[in-house]
Task: structure prediction
Amino acid sequence: MCHDHDSRPPAPPRSGDVAERGVLTLTAGDGTVFSAAYAAPAEPPRVGAVLLPDIRGLHPYYVALVERFAEAGVATVAIDWFGRTAGVCGESGTRGEDFEWRAHVPQTTETGIDADITAAIGYLRERSSADLPVVTVGFCFGGSHSWRQSGGSLDLAGCAGFYGRPSIVGDAARRAHLPTVMVIAGADAATPVPDQLALAETMRAAGAEVDAVVYDGAPHSFFDRAYGEWAEACRDAWEHVLALTDRVALR
Result:
């Protein structure tokens, strides 16, 4: 199970003021208009992040998560997957609990996803600085596509993914070159841990520095403030992701 409509992310281990938050639309290079959420820290950011959601697209969990990243000092945009096939989100700016994502996920393409990520990178730099380093952080379906960026050509400084699928990363793993964080749920029923660790080795062999951390017994989508028994795993996962943002941040 991916993060559901009522899930909310855990707090980061460091917290500051948030200057701006809200939902908006962005336009990709092919003219597609898609929904997004944005939050910025009060202090000028030294790094940005593009959040890649799970199969449900831009639902409230990710609107909350961009604010959590902003609290940690990272200017952040979360994107919706479905601008090409379902249009922009409704009046709330997010996908509703009844959104039929099953019909739309198979229609996504790597080309379309990368165009939307590129638009989000551009927005972050427009709001901050032209040389702002940006990473991707993804979850489930989005985690897979975040790992894929390590072997891609977008103007990114690193990538992190929670509970992704190696099959979606595909041949990009053999071209991996960006620093990568892999957050692996030890009891993930969707993808066996050995498959994810094998992906990490393939990416390392290609030249990427890969930080792969396994949380024994943790279920898929454990990064949720409602899962009190995994609070320490959530805190530690934050530390691994923020270590990546700190590493690539403007000095």
